[in-house]
Amino acid sequence: MTRVGVEDNSLVHRSASALGVFELRKLNDSVLDAKFVSRARVAMKKTVGSYLIECLEARGVRHVFGIPGVHNLELYRGLTRSRIRHVTGRHEQGLGFMADGYARTTGRPGVCFTITGPGLTNIVTAMGQAYADSIPMVVISSENSRADIGTGCGHLHELPDQLGLAAKVSASAERVEQARDLHDVVARAFAAATGGRPRPVYIEIPRDVLAADARGLPAPASGQSPPPPEPATAESIAVAARRLRCAHSPVLLVGGGARGAAAEIKSLAEHLGAPVVMTINARGLLPPQHPLGVSMTASLAPVRAMIGAADTVLAVGTELGPTDYDMYAASELSQLRELIRIDVDEAELRRNARPALALRGHARETLRGILASGLGAVRAPWGEATVLGVRAEAQQLLSAPMRREIAFLEVIRDAVANAILVGDSTQPVYAGNLGFAAATPGSWFNSATGYGTLGYAVPASTGAGLGAPDRPIVCLVGDGGIQFSLGELAVPRDVDAWSVIVIWNNRGYAEIKTSMLAVDIEPEGVNVQPPDFSHLARAYGYGYLFIEDLESLEQALRDFASRRQVLVLEIRAAAFE
Ligand SMILES: Cc1ncc(C[n+]2csc(CCOP(=O)(O)OP(=O)(O)O)c2C)c(N)n1
Ligand SMILES: [Mg+2]
Question: Would the N or C end of the chain have less CB density within 10 A of its end CB?
Fold first, then answer.
């Protein structure tokens, strides 16, 4: 083995043999990435499949989440020779959720490979989740040969209108009809996934096209980032700044679309003395101890009352949707007096509430424009007293178990520095969505909101860890939700993850049981038996602890945080309620 350098992201070791070349790259202080580059003779053949790998590589794709089958074999030609690392899921829905978690921690689209038919239908749920939460994802699937599509003859994996099905949950869906189109289709797909509002996109390649000769096609161009949408006009920015300057009681509502604008949100809030209400996907934009931060849902009456009383509301990167603003169907937000909205998506600017002033543009650039155009003197922080009162009142509305669940989450946040908490649809996650203050932007996300898919957290947390390999990942999942994607428990081991899987075990679908009881339905279908999680952890080779109190939780998490490992913590939920 030859030593060739030790800088970050650099090649640290390289050894060559008759079989191929082994490379070790340093990603950061603690993480090395190993890759075997095969010299296999198949590499000599160049098909549309292997050309696609070159196109993805040229665009900077470094991970692909896939499951191979006879239909998409050609997608794997040349993969081992590339710099792309293939992560194999155990079900295509898991691929999609991994890609979702990966996109959230990298800001780049997660790329998936599926087979025709069942591969595609299996991933559609994950595409629906990503669509609802504006997450970029590129799903690439095989399709039957061109002459066989839509014939209904009963070809293997045949699905009526596969393209039409995928298009329903995609910002763009295209079939590659001939080899020479591939390069541009890929370019358009990446542009659609990331150019405006991030979304999943879909590419399908018929088997005969995938296997076609690709010699003679031009070398793939390196991927250019799509041009950002036109910034908001200087005039509208000036009007917004004037209105904010004149406001006596402004409030900021920030959503997932503002995640890249933490510094600007903080400056603006502090300048105006304005409270900042953070949606689930915006938690952490202001840190937990910030006196203007409201890390509580706008569905709670005191928070709604504060927003309603504001003389000016600035909403940034938020759709003002019901799961964040009106979970209890209390009333519409449309009667807000002076609403200014900033969003990258034109359609979003008018969804759920009509603004007095709409600014289309990226959150960060638009807020910078407002900050630069003169907001007058720094305001007395009237918002601080308001925020204190609202927080205390809203706390009172949470049930005692919910408050304990939030305390449980705070122990996790404080014991595992720099952690990303990825949640499923389970009781502590619901409580957290109501009132948990995340440490940093992007360190709290889950499937208990929006599309709301059970089974998300295990694969999404694995993807998050691949995107942020030097950060510890906390997966929060219920005993019911984890059984939706048990197979995906294998992947953390495959990828040498740094994850703790925290299983909230209340022996069944507790939240649904509660909902049945609340409307006088005799519970049925909710007392599902969990498996023995200690055996399950052992089956995958993971450490396991049974947790019944906060002290042992904290100790277990501190040990977890001290070294790279995969650990399963089974929580006896009854002990915390
Ligand atoms: C794919 C899917 N199927 C069904 C549901 C409905 N659902 C929401 S929460 C829930 C119960 C989850 O049980 P568990 O993970 O154990 O969490 P708990 O409520 O017990 O904390 C169910 C069945 C869903 N959200 N998603
Ligand atoms: Mg449960």
Answer: N
